[in-house]
Amino acid sequence: MTMTARALQHVKVLDLSRVLAGPWAAQTLGDLGAEVIKVERPGTGDDTRAWGPPYVTDPAGQPTGESAYYMCTNRNKQSVSIDFTQPEGQALVRRLAQQCDVLIENFKTGGLRQYGLDYASLSELNPRLVYCSVTGFGQDGPYAHRAGYDFLIQGMGGLMSITGQPDGAPGAGPMKVGVALTDILTGLYASTAILAALQAREHTGRGQHIDLALLDVGVACLGNQAMNYLYGHTVPRRMGNAHPNTVPYQDFPTADGYMILAVGNDGQFARLCAAIERPQWAGDPRFAANAARLANRDELIEGLRAITVTRTTREWIDLLERHGVPCGPINTVAEVFEDPQVQARGMRIAMAHPQAGQVPLVASPIRLSDTPVTYRHAPPQLGQHTDDVLARHLGLGAEALQTYRNKGVLG
């Protein structure tokens, strides 16, 4: 806990989303200081609570009901368990929305209309509301009605077509990224869009609807590969760990494993040549300039691999770093958290949990000098804050809360 001023301490967020993309956006806003109220279904809550093992356990080793997956994206939130399929539950959520600045949801397009919780309905009650919808394919277009999942989007959006070993190589074929990358990127785009809409509201006095689609994000994040196609008119292909625009920029075998060389310009290549005792390559017309190295990629890579296998990964990194050549190991996740730089940056944190004692979490990468990220709430248990939030925000007393609970409106 810290009393430091928080960048978004004046912002209230109603989080109706679940799984990853929407909750990632809400967690980012929460880390920046917003009050985030997570509305969950009684009994089950966010789908990812059950996405295990592994699960969070108490000091006796008993599961607490939260999976490790759920813990990755629900920090700095308060859980309120409301059944908004019931009219009285809908009324409670509408009352909360009237007091909030932001609402995030990731139901299928039009899915909240039947409950009166869509943008058109809620903006009439709260014209200043910034309402962010996250879907697979957006609010319009021929696929708008479809459900969207990260794996599906990585395929449809082109990412898998450029990820994996090239045709003809062992293990060739399209490959997804090892985390739900389009979900996470969509969450980051969502938080950016929400901050932009809040800033715009300072000038217009009005909120607005944000329409974010996983497929749109997947296409946007093709980055240089998309531009390579649009300008070069050649369809990018899978290249394993090689880079389409610069050489050498990939993994190389060593005496005890692999390392990465990430040479980004001709000066770095010249320093690499000096380090590996091949200074003549820096002046060789086949290799001196990046365009030439691209044209002679196979010959250069073969020559480098014959050299890199002669030393261990650690020996190469020590040598190449002294020469100013960008390089590094390929760490396992365990090795990531043992890395001195990761430790120095405090990327592993621990927070108090009501059942588990202390739970480990991954820190936010955002660093602000005046209004730093704060860690106030561990990912909440289902319905942990129902009574507190509804008492503070809606003025409900113990009798009213119990009445709602008896009707199954509250969990």
Automatic annotation (TrEMBL):
Q: Does the keyword Transferase apply?
A: yes
**Annotated Gene Ontology MF terms?**
CoA-transferase activity
The answer, when asked if Transferase is one of the entry's keywords, is: yes
* UniProt keyword annotations, A-Z: Transferase
Identification of the protein by name? CoA transferase
Originating species: Achromobacter aloeverae
